[in-house]
Amino acid sequence: MWQTPTLAPIRRPQPQKPPPFNAMLAALRSAKTLQRAAGASRAFAAKPFSPDAYEQKYLAKTYNADGVRGEPGLVFTHGKGSKLFDQQGREFLDFYAGIAVSGLGHGDEDVRWWTTRASTRSSSPTPARRPTRAPTSSRACTPTALARERTWQLGQEGCNGDSADLEFSLTNRPLEGKKYEFISFKHGFHGRTAAALTLTHKPKIREAFMPLVPGVHYAEFNDIESVKKLISDKTAGVFIEPVQGEGGVYPADPEFMRELRALCDKHDTLLITDEVQCGLGRTGKLFAHELYDVTPDIMTLAKPLAGGLPIGAVLMSNKVAAAVTPSQHGTTFGGNPLVCAVANTVLNKIMDENFLANVQKRGKYLANGLEKLQQKFPDKVADVRKPIGKGGLFVALECTKPVGPLIEYALSKQVLIISAGEKYVDASVALIFWGEISNVSVLPFCSSSTIRLCPPLIVDEKDIDQLLDVFEKAFEEDVL
Description:
Number of strands: 19
Region (Disordered): 118-140
Radius of gyration: 24 Å
CATH class of the largest domain: Alpha Beta
InterPro entries: Aminotrans_3, Aminotrans_3_PPA_site, Class-III_PLP-dep_AT, PyrdxlP-dep_Trfase, PyrdxlP-dep_Trfase_major, PyrdxlP-dep_Trfase_small
Keywords: Aminotransferase, Pyridoxal phosphate, Transferase
CATH architecture of the largest domain: 3-Layer(aba) Sandwich
Structural class: alpha/beta
GO molecular function: identical protein binding; pyridoxal phosphate binding; transaminase activity
Cofactor: pyridoxal 5'-phosphate
């Protein structure tokens, strides 16, 4: 079994001797400088620190008109497992995990240990000499069909990976200039860089940035005939999420995926799976495409790969990689040693057979509980959607009305959930983890009728029962 590489013992740096006091005074040069500094210190100390006021004044309004936080005063300081804790010490059950980011939950001991250990090393040596990328790559390239003859490219996040996918597809044109078009699917989401935005169908996201990359066409998801009308010998690649997350947790049909693979082969077109949200254990399999017995040419991973630290990865066949030449693609922070050391630990845990079996078991338990609610409240619940297979912790609760009130009700019961779907709106509540190194999560209030459940992969039946109880009480009280 692959083992996490052993590093040399950590040696704490010796504290440096402070400079002489007279030298520090001389550096200030004059009494006037001292006076100004003292005045500034008193003025700063007189103003109480408020994260809400700070964000409203200084942060760009990318998520909310009043700043990044739409729920004043709600500030999370730390987390443990599937729970988050705010400044008042209140405990919240987290059922969206930073939109599928916190796969191992919050405060995982191994992730924290490796983050601390790796941070004492060089933070970012030259990309050609970084020490811990190979274990990350080889670890995930061992157990599956995708693993055979695979090459990795490491980056910072998922949308960078999709942009790289597009670049790598163009490098594989048999004849220069003959393959320059792409196909992606309606209701899909691939990120917010220029190239990734082009692949994302949703007009509300794209229109402000037009024109974007030319030559991208949008097919109907799970409709092979719509793909046949668009694909040609000019098509360089077809991008697809095996399970559409932002679109509302819609899984691809098995027959559709098989026909799509055959169609790509017919036209010498690359099949590219975006598994940023649905990959790495979320569906009960390491990779979502394994559910379909279909092997893509390129795959993108990100979100849970490094336990909340920024990382993205592109896996490509050796045939695709052979066409990539030095300097065609680059990234400043891709393959960062600290992040890769943590990713090794995350992969070790997720790839354990018992871990994935537990995800399947808990996913089935969650879906069964939601289906019982659907039977009990048919006027409230229209559908329950989940990936194909034995079960995964990626489930949609489709309601008969917009779910904004249900999200607010759950928040009042200290349960965090998120919406999805075509009416998903990015004006949102951002939950800032203040006081520790951690990530920013987003809890949208919107007009969507879909609740997207993507909790940490370590939730237990007690957590699921708590969520189901909140839903049941909400429906009994006619919250919707």
